[in-house]
Specification:
The chain is built from 21 helices and six strands. It is mostly helical. It is globular.
């Protein structure tokens, strides 16, 4: 969850009142691991491939093959240097030693770190994979099976049950594809090797805190290569902020307790600003003569104002709440559908900051509720840029003076804004779509 999409595609929480005090009585629940390394801390996924030995595709100097090898050689030194930080959090030396003494890095993760699918696939390919008839039917079955729990959670948190089920479905196909990598090993690897060590250092230490407190059993703390675990894929830091003990058994178990899974996910969305009674957004028709420069995350205005620009819903269906503020997203440019995004779309993006991911969650939410598929066609005839081409496009935009952030091959709002401006300069429709044609134009200038 959050910054990295986790399960099959990668081949991929404020504690409840009183929980802090309760944790004090559970600190040594697994103290028996002292001197014995839990298998989940060190085992490799069965039959998993080894690291390719190749440099990452992001261009980050820490992702060169030589840098990865050098960091791997120093892995145990890195782990030793992290011990004082763990001690300050109340992690006992026995627990720290038990989970790190013979820990080895999982270098296969280096091949996955630069290839998150929500940043590398086209929107339509991503949606095809995640929002389909099988997943919709499975989600409806899950909603019925746990109806009483969803009822209780919806009353407690005011979060739409269908969006929780959609997250469950997109993240792990309803718990069937949650990953089998030990969270401690994955986060330790990323804390010491690769381009996001600062971020994953916090995740590694938080994973050890979870084990120290005893919320999740050691052999169940397994998940994605990025360290996300459980059916709705909590990163360790997110677990600390949002996980709740909804079944009142003394543990916040987002792996095996369905009430805790559903309630913790709802608590996460609520704390991130979920607006009760509001949807995530609408598919919209954008007129050909529209000023595409207005399609920007920063431009959030009442829907009725967008209607004055000629924005409509397919079939001229009315907008239920025209006073709601929204921004316009046109992910495939003038050739594809547009989407009016409300506040809850931004909340979903806090769960995972990729537009394709949030759109998949929103669309699956609607399909689970009984809504039809999107009406307008995607430009499937367009050649999808490779990861290297996306990185090159960003680098060329940067050379032309545009701020796209750190070029990494992830085409988000800043890159789209830069493309729009470039298209305006050369006389093209400024729809912000990163097409092969735009890349060719950049190469020739």
């Amino acid at each position: 969850m959050r910054l990295i999409h986790r399960y099959l595609l990668a081949a991929v929480l404020m504690v409840a009142a009183g929980a802090a005090a309760m944790a004090q009585t559970r600190d040594d629940r697994y103290s028996g691991v002292t001197g014995t390394i839990p298998p989940a801390a060190v085992a490799s996924p069965a039959g998993g491939p080894d690291w390719s030995g190749e440099s990452g595709s992001s261009g980050d100097p820490r992702m060169t093959a030589a840098a990865i090898r050098a960091a791997a050689v120093n892995f145990h030194g890195c782990i030793e240097r992290l011990w004082p930080l763990a001690a300050r959090r109340g992690i006992s030396h026995n627990v720290y030693a038990a989970y790190t003494a013979v820990l080895t890095p999982d270098l296969r993760i280096m091949d996955l770190l630069d290839g998150q699918p929500e940043f590398t696939k086209s929107f339509w390919d991503y949606l095809d994979l995640l929002v389909n008839d099988v997943r919709i039917e499975q989600g409806r079955t899950l909603l019925q099976r746990y109806r009483a729990t969803f009822d209780a959670v919806e009353r407690a948190y005011g979060v739409d049950r269908y969006v929780i089920a959609a997250i469950w479905g997109v993240e792990t196909n309803y718990g069937t594809l949650g990953g089998d990598r030990p969270v401690v090993r994955s986060t330790a690897t990323l804390a010491c090797i690769g381009r996001r060590q600062n971020y994953f250092r916090e995740e590694f230490l938080s994973a050890l805190e979870i084990l120290q407190r005893g919320d999740v059993k050691p052999d169940r703390l397994v998940g994605s290569w990025a360290g996300a675990f459980g059916p709705t894929q909590f990163m360790p830091t997110a677990f600390k902020r949002f996980a709740v003990d909804f079944d009142h058994d003394g543990r916040r178990d987002v792996v095996d307790s369905v009430p805790d899974i559903i309630a913790s996910t709802a608590n996460n969305l609520k704390k991130d600003g979920w607006v009760t009674g509001q949807t995530w957004g609408y598919e919209v028709v954008v007129p050909a003569n529209f000023n595409f420069l207005l399609a920007d995350h920063a431009r959030s205005i009442p829907i009725r104002d967008w209607e004055r620009y000629g924005i409509t819903r397919p079939g001229n269906k009315p907008f239920p709440r025209p006073d709601d503020h929204a921004f316009l997203l046109i992910p495939a440019g003038v050739q594809g559908p547009g989407f009016m995004m409300l506040a809850n779309f931004r909340v979903i993006m806090r769960y995972n900051p990729a537009e394709a991911y949030a759109l998949a969650i929103g669309h699956l939410t609607d399909r689970l509720r009984g809504a039809p598929s999107f009406v307008q066609n995607w430009p499937r005839y367009e050649r999808v840029l490779s990861r290297g081409e996306r990185l090159e496009l960003q680098q060329l935009l940067e050379r032309h003076g545009y701020d796209v952030g750190e070029p990494d091959g992830h085409l988000g709002a800043r890159t789209r804004a830069a493309i729009r401006d470039f298209q305006t300069r050369i006389g093209l429709v400024p729809d912000g779509f990163a097409s092969a044609g735009v890349l060719d134009q950049l190469r020739g200038r």
